[in-house]
Amino acid sequence: MVSRTAAALAAASPAIAEAHFRAEATPYHPIERPDGYLNLGTAENRLLGDLLTAWAAELPPVTEQETRYAPLHGTALLRERIAALLTGTYGAPVDPEHLVLVSGASAALDVIASVLCDPGEAIVLPAPYYGAFDTDLGGRSGARLVPAPLRSGTGFALELEPIDRALRLAARAGATVRAIALATPANPLGLVHPADLLRDLVELAAAHRVHLIGDQIYAHSVFGSRPFTALEAVGGERVHTVWGFAKDFGLPGFKAGVLHSTDPEVLAAARALAYFAPVSTGTQAVLARLLADPVRTAAFLAENRRRLAASCAAAAAQLARHGIGHLPAEAGCSLWIDLRPMLPAPGFAGEQELWRTVADRLRVNILPGAAFHSPEPGWFRLCHPLDAGLVAEAVARLGTLPRRTGAAAAEGSPR
Amino acid sequence: MVSRTAAALAAASPAIAEAHFRAEATPYHPIERPDGYLNLGTAENRLLGDLLTAWAAELPPVTEQETRYAPLHGTALLRERIAALLTGTYGAPVDPEHLVLVSGASAALDVIASVLCDPGEAIVLPAPYYGAFDTDLGGRSGARLVPAPLRSGTGFALELEPIDRALRLAARAGATVRAIALATPANPLGLVHPADLLRDLVELAAAHRVHLIGDQIYAHSVFGSRPFTALEAVGGERVHTVWGFAKDFGLPGFKAGVLHSTDPEVLAAARALAYFAPVSTGTQAVLARLLADPVRTAAFLAENRRRLAASCAAAAAQLARHGIGHLPAEAGCSLWIDLRPMLPAPGFAGEQELWRTVADRLRVNILPGAAFHSPEPGWFRLCHPLDAGLVAEAVARLGTLPRRTGAAAAEGSPR
Prior knowledge:
The structure is a homodimer of 415-residue chains. With 415 residues, chain A is an alpha/beta fold. Helix content of chain A is 42%, strand content 13%. Chain A has 15 helices and 13 strands. Chains A and B meet through helix 1, helix 2, helix 3, helix 5 and helix 10 of A and helix 1, helix 2, helix 3, helix 5 and helix 10 of B.
């Protein structure tokens, strides 16, 4: 018999991880394994391998000093360099002393949720939202996640009214809401939230006296015309953000995430929690070297944005070619695609059935909207930053799905 | 305002870490900073720098594949190689599927405690015990730690009777005891527990229907004549052990710890918790390469044992020269030294006063027995695996402490 928390976590293994490892175990190859899986389910940026390999080959080996104990919330050197990078990106000063480094953005989200919430307290999230938030924010902290459903008709664009309503409903039901959380840029939607709206969101959080948690993991992966606005640039107290190297640097295995907060009490508590999820000094040394030359880092990140834009455009063209709708994306690794016309049955039961068909018959791993608490069934997240041929093959397979007659016309297309 | 757990953690920052970083900030140097700190407070093995640096220089750079997502409880390759190493050391088969890798032995202890204990449930530990167990085992899990005091007269050797009594007392007081935990080899005492006694301990745990948690972080750092007996070699169900690279490989910064359990339910829960404290794939790649050649690894570990033995003997000789008693050590990084004759006042208040004198006036960082829940005041942990000149300087300073007349004779010397 194990503890309640551990039992709940073991029972709720994130669907994303399971589907990812199944697909990775028997990957598609045009000649060697044509019946293998095409994995477009994981937001893993695989466009940067050549640059990273070249860079890694240049790095000097780890020194003896770098194998020793270091502050468990991150070495001073790496925090300084991350602070310098984020100061530029956010257009607002980031103090290295306001950063807490832990082993991954998931761990950083766990830290801020565990700092803010006693078990049973609530966090409100505009939905659809990144499905792993359920585990990241709620799994160890015991916080309860309350979705605030956005509207399909507006392309699930961020709106304050549903969040305000969810806050009020939760309070009326006796819940103690401690925070609003969201990904900015949005994941799975790949949208950049407008600056005005973020300003209003900070005010809404202040009015409700709740904290605001911003997952800014895609801060350097914005390739559309609308500029990214960091919550740091908006200002406001009780705002805490998370960033990491997984997406923008294409280093998901390195598990380096950073929490940014200016609240001294939150920082002290977060540092104490970082004790349980420190990052290897060896990996920190590598990351500090990657950030040593700001000009080179900027060029790397610019190339990443170019490649993401090209990858997104190529995937969008393939989708159009096969008559599959999607929402326009301007950031991140994914497209939110519209398989509503292919639903074999109504509702989320139909979506689940379609997911199984796509996975088992088409051998394509994409995640269904339900995994993101989508308010409407039939949407799927397709991740595009991998070999364009694989994406084309996957989309072609999706194009073979039977459609209900007139379905697309009847439901219309958002935006 | 932060959560109850976070507030408690922030308030109880481990004394070991604080003292370590203060001492490291202004280190002693015979010429450049003769009034600097001598840090003998941290169990950091600094005898292996030359070997590690040479080894690191040979390692090929990380590959693209090694930057990607991998199973969050450890790559298959590294778990296989750790399992092979431990199988040899433990003299009992270790299955890679029974290992859960997380970011440090502290994290591994947190994982097993959080798996076994609901908040408020108890873990019994023979004392003195490694002070950071309070945070590692209790900090996030909410488990309550119950010391079972060993006897000074027998040199704090492991005995079952105090553990049995603590288990009975806790149960009578209405506590739900979930586990017994101990370091084996013992820390801070540097003792190797006899095989018979470990067998009886496993039986005692079974009789009380509690789990047994063994911290075997010093498994490869045994340099005395008594052989190390792993709990795996003793057998028994509900036995879970922790190991890591910090001590035996002199890589404390790399934060790679591993939990070993054969219980499927515990393993599933531990894997779910590993999600929050994964190890960088970059660091895992380095560690897997370090373990690639079993012959070389064995030679490295043998050299470590030789150096530890020499370091321990040198420190013991210095202590004898300055008339400071200590318990004989046969493993680990530390000596349990007897400053009872130097106590300026009776009890733990006197020990605390002596600690301050040693730190502030002598500029020597060693940790007092109270930090290890010592049942008797006046004992300190002195860590020896660093430059022999620094150890000699530190011991010479300790030798200048005033003694109470006839104190040593009156109290006698254990063993």
